[in-house]
Amino acid sequence: MTIQITISGLPRHQIKSAARGQSNRDPLTTSWLKKKLRLALAMTAARSGTWRIYLIGDAAMTEMHQRTLGINTTTDVLTFDWRDHTTDRRCLELETLIGRDVARRQARQFHHPVAWEVLLYAIHSLLHVQGYDDRTARQARRIHRREDQILLALGIGPVYAAGANAELQTLLKGVGNTMVRA
Prior knowledge:
By secondary structure, this protein is of the alpha/beta class. It is built from 7 helices and 5 strands; from the N terminus they run E-H-E-H-E-E-H-H-H-H-H-E.
């Protein structure tokens, strides 16, 4: 497997855990995230290509959400699949924008490390380009079940399930997880 992963927007120092009194056993660092994403990639059909990940703040995410989908709010993740329709699905040309501030708030709300939340968003983006969607409640259950399976295999456990009811309500209001096709 030769997938080039680049990550931008992580601070030089680790982001402290959002949950009070919680150890930061999984600090959000580029090396930690790349390691987990390489393992996640091995659980999908992806075999080659590039994956560019950008962690951005609320203002930049709101601007991109407005520009791409006409929604003037921040969101957790935007996925850009840059493959043309003839590209083999095993080849990635993926760009993922992750809402750093959203991840911090969600991690705090659900009492787990922000690193887990960021990893969840990245896996969600990856699954979108592997044929998963979340536009209906049934599709959302399917993609979130697969996310949790991957996170469990990575030794983290079901991050999405911790906040499934709250996130599903957000999803159904049209604010949540989104994929944009080029």
